[in-house]
TrEMBL record, chain A:
Protein name according to UniProt: ABC-type branched-chain amino acid transport system, permease component
Pfam families registered for this protein in UniProt: BPD_transp_2 (PF02653)
Compartment(s) of residence: Cell membrane
CDD domains for this protein: TM_PBP1_LivM_like
GO MF term list: branched-chain amino acid transmembrane transporter activity
UniProt-listed InterPro entries: ABC_transp_permease, LivM-like
Keywords: Cell membrane, Membrane, Transmembrane, Transmembrane helix
Assigned GO CC terms: plasma membrane
Topology of the protein relative to the lipid bilayer: Multi-pass membrane protein
Species: Mesotoga prima MesG1.Ag.4.2
From TrEMBL, chain B:
GO BP terms, alphabetized: D-alanine transmembrane transport; L-alanine transport; L-isoleucine import across plasma membrane; L-valine import across plasma membrane
Alphabetized UniProt keyword annotations: ATP-binding, Nucleotide-binding, Transport
Protein name listed in UniProt: ABC-type branched-chain amino acid transport systems, ATPase component
UniProt keyword Transmembrane, yes or no: no
GO MF, one example: L-valine transmembrane transporter activity
GO-annotated cellular components: plasma membrane
PANTHER family reported in the protein's UniProt record: AMINO ACID ABC TRANSPORTER ATP-BINDING PROTEIN, CONSERVED COMPONENT OF ABC TRANSPORTER FOR NATURAL AMINO ACIDS-RELATED
Family annotation (Gene3D superfamilies): P-loop containing nucleotide triphosphate hydrolases
CDD domains in the cross-refs: ABC_Mj1267_LivG_branched (cd03219)
Domain ABC transporter, residue spans: 4-257
InterPro entries: AAA+_ATPase, ABC_AA/LPS_Transport, ABC_transporter-like_ATP-bd, BCA_ABC_TP_C, P-loop_NTPase
Species this protein is from: Mesotoga prima MesG1.Ag.4.2
Length: 342, 264
């Protein structure tokens, strides 16, 4: 507890130093780690802790990104961007600060989560996964075609680059604090009980549907927040690419499985590792000189090595890096003790 | 009026009639046994009482309120809790957590849910409630002799202890009627003897009513005050242990018709 209190300011100090000392490329990656962390933690609440397997996370992230982008762009910019059809009335004339736009993005995503969760949480297991997968595809199709709101295939461009290290890591802190305290309350215990045995949980007086819906909506809320941050980090939202498509869901899924499905701190580690590796491995795609052989860069090589690394991690840590346990200082100490005893 | 009443309850699965026209009254404070050969419909009756199945016909009343086909969690909140024949503990949770989960509905039931939700996020006034639940859970564990195992994962427990934990978990819901589905299955003789004492003790100390299914005849005859015998979904005999043991229809159901004629 005390160590955690010391750790938080030191992380803040490190972030500050990284801003001062490192170039903007690195500080962008550090920001991305924060954003991925939020995505992973919010999906962990749904997939890891309450045990409903959602594949619709990208849908909520996209909803959040669009919502906040439409709120932070200036009316003149919107006038210029919306070439196909004019933006509908209330949206075309408002511009609000980034903080509020992000909150509203979260709320709108939560409403979407409620609307999709209400009918589909009556399904279980694979059926629910397919329903949410369908939902995120529907969001993408709507984004492509709803010209008067999303600007259709042209997407939204030149978003103000509001997202910096502080926004990303600040929201990460809020997300982690909320999800952690919830997951380790009676509510979280009930969710884990549902994950372990749905029938028995219901027989012990737990309203399974309501609990899962609450978790799903909250997961949607933080997904919306991360979407807002992600949109303003990329500064473009293009529905034609897969940035906000199914691939994003699977990337987030990789993060949480990598970190350990059901572990919140594991999700952050998974997110950080994912962000770090996917950038760091870029050197593989440049021209290389191995043993005198000159190799031209092969694009896509990065992803190949990336997947190889995941397979290796899954072989040695089949339940992810953290399993279902959380990071604790005692745990860290005991790891080092074991090292030195050998 | 009886604590639990089943009125002419019938359960059909397609063409199969699992339970036919069963009427059952359980009085407050008694230990009632439900026995019968495999496939007689005993567990089906449990599943109907707890709302896991919706009876095809008939009514189920608890404290004179109709509970027929309510959702299982609602039925539990009215005061009926069960254990499972094939143990269904929350395997990845600790023994203590398993028991605490059952108390969750007391703080998150209708109306209180929203205020409670913010309480647990902000942690304001929450730890007191948590401590209360923890203490109650520990007390129940010590009643069943599991307090030493409180921080073990429930899946690490021996079979007999898991059965006891299922009872503790059911009791923690605050139920007044316990439905025990084969509580002694997989237990050795000394564990079974201990179980008989335990069930009697919790009935007396907590003012519970117990309805149990069991195949161990020694346990049933020694523990239950009234017994109902089912065969092929129908009631074939009902009464105290001495009466049921002598009933020709019961012997016939268990041992076959020839045995009855030879016995005469």
């Amino acid at each position: 507890m005390i160590l955690t209190l010391i750790a938080l300011p030191s992380i803040a100090l490190l972030l500050f130093l990284s801003q001062e000392l490192l170039n903007s490329y690195y500080s962008r990656i550090i920001t991305l780690i924060g954003i991925y962390g939020i995505m992973a933690v919010s999906l962990t609440l749904v997939n890891g802790i309450s045990g409903v397997f959602s594949l619709g996370h990208a849908g909520f992230i996209a909803v959040g990104a669009y919502t906040s982008a439409l709120l932070t762009l200036s009316p003149e910019q919107k006038e210029m961007t919306f070439l196909i059809e004019k933006l509908v009335w209330p949206l075309n004339s408002i511009q609000i600060p980034f903080f509020w736009a992000t909150i509203i993005a979260g709320l709108v995503a939560a409403v979407f989560a409620f609307l999709i969760g209400w009918p589909s949480l009556r399904l279980t297991g694979d059926y629910f996964a397919i329903a949410t997968l369908g939902f995120s595809e529907i969001i993408r199709i709507f984004a492509l075609n709803l010209n008067s709101i999303t600007n259709g295939a042209l997407g939204l461009k030149a978003l103000p680059d509001h997202t910096n290290v502080w926004w990303a890591w600040g929201w990460l802190l809020v997300t982690v604090a909320t999800v952690l305290s919830l997951a380790y309350s009676s509510f979280g215990r009930a969710l884990r009980a549902i994950r372990e045995d749905r029938v028995a949980a219901q027989a012990m007086g737990i309203n399974v549907f309501k609990h899962q819906l609450t978790a799903f909506v909250l997961g949607g809320f933080f997904a919306g927040i991360s979407g807002s941050l992600y949109g303003h980090w990329l500064s473009t939202i293009d529905p034609r690419t897969n940035t906000f498509g199914i691939l994003l869901t699977f990337n987030v899924l990789i993060m949480i499985v990598l970190g350990g499905l059901g572990s919140i701190t594991g999700a952050i580690i998974g997110g950080a590792l994912f962000a770090f590796l996917s950038e760091w491995l870029r050197f593989l795609e440049g021209p290389m000189n191995i043993l005198g052989f000159k190799i031209m860069g092969i694009s896509g090589m990065r992803m190949l090595v990336f997947s190889g690394l995941f397979v290796i991690i899954m072989i040695f840590w089949p339940r992810g890096l953290m399993g279902r346990s959380e990071f604790s200082w005692d745990g860290l100490v005991s790891v080092f003790k074991r090292r030195y005893k050998r | 009026m009886s604590l639990l009443t089943l009125e002419n309850v019938t359960m059909k699965f397609g063409g199969l009639t699992a339970v036919k026209d069963v009427t059952l009254r359980v009085e407050e404070g008694e230990i009632f046994g439900l026995i019968g050969p495999n496939g007689a419909g005993k567990t089906t009756i449990f599943n109907m009482i707890t709302g896991h199945y919706k009876p095809t016909d008939g009514r189920i009343l608890f404290r004179e309120n109709e509970i027929t086909a309510l959702q299982p969690d609602k039925i539990t909140r009215t005061g009926i809790a069960r254990t499972f024949q094939n143990i269904r503990l929350f395997r990845d949770l600790t023994v203590l957590e398993n028991v605490m989960v059952s108390q969750h509905h007391t703080i998150a039931s209708n109306g209180k849910a929203v205020s409670w939700f913010f309480k647990s996020v902000t942690r304001l006034g929450y730890s007191e409630k948590e401590r209360e639940m923890r203490n109650k859970a520990l007390e129940l564990l010590s009643v069943l002799g599991l307090e030493m195992l409180a921080n073990e994962k429930s899946s690490a427990l021996s079979y007999g202890s898991q059965r006891l934990l299922e009872i503790a978990r059911a009791m923690a819901t605050g139920a007044t009627l316990l439905l025990l589905d084969e509580p002694a299955a997989g237990m050795n003789a000394s564990e079974t003897a201990g179980l008989v004492d335990t069930i009697r003790r919790i009935r007396d100390d907590f003012g519970l009513t117990v309805l149990l299914i069991e195949h161990d005849m020694k346990l049933v005859m020694g523990l239950c005050e009234r017994i109902m015998v089912l065969d092929h979904g129908r009631t074939i005999s009902e009464g105290d242990p001495a009466f049921v043991q002598k009933d020709v229809r019961v012997i016939e159901a268990y041992l076959g018709r020839e045995w009855v004629t030879v016995g005469k």
